[in-house]
Design brief:
168 residues; 8 strands; 6-stranded mixed β-sheet; two-stranded antiparallel sheet; alpha+beta
């Protein structure tokens, strides 16, 4: 999705963008994302003080793999998008400037939208906050049934002391 600088040149006008896009790299690169529906992009671009402001939302249904029980689940992801672009003669990287310098006659929004989506994804997705996860001994899903495995872990430095108490 690109915006031409000439389309937002008039400060009194706004450019509305509504499109459906796919971001296949997100599914490839983020391990706990199993699938992602096409992203509904609803943005508004306007010009203020030599900068192009692009605001709106990015929405999609994301299928995650739970980080505790490995079951797949679907959640709606609504990401607010707000970026400020400025036209530049050459690409300048200034970490303190919040504006994004753009060389040329058009603004390519796709990498910035992909970045916003990746930053909005949960680090460790959970199917439920109370997800019990998998048994570390037998691998049974503790949400579906319980097992009698002893998953008590003893510090290896104290293992001989535990054996001593078992014998006495």
């Amino acid at each position: 999705m690109n915006i031409q600088w000439r389309d937002v040149r008039d400060p009194s006008a706004e450019l509305h963008l509504h499109e459906t896009m796919t971001f296949p790299n997100i599914v490839k690169e983020i391990g706990h994302v199993v699938a992602m529906s096409p992203v509904e992009v609803d943005l508004c671009a306007s010009m203020h003080d030599d900068s192009c402001y692009v605001r709106g939302t990015l929405s999609a249904d994301v299928t995650y793999r739970c980080s505790r029980c490995l079951q797949e689940f679907v959640e709606r992801l609504d990401v607010p998008f707000c970026e400020r672009f400025v036209k530049a003669a050459q690409e300048v990287v200034d970490d303190e400037d919040e504006r994004i310098a753009v060389v040329g006659e058009e603004i390519d929004l796709e990498p910035w939208m992909e970045q916003a989506i990746i930053l909005a994804l949960p680090y460790r997705p959970l199917c439920e906050q109370e997800c019990a996860g998998l048994c570390p001994v037998c691998g049974m899903n503790r949400n579906e049934s319980s097992c009698n495995c002893n998953d008590e872990r003893i510090d290896p430095r104290l293992a001989d002391l535990a054996k001593f108490f078992e014998q006495n």
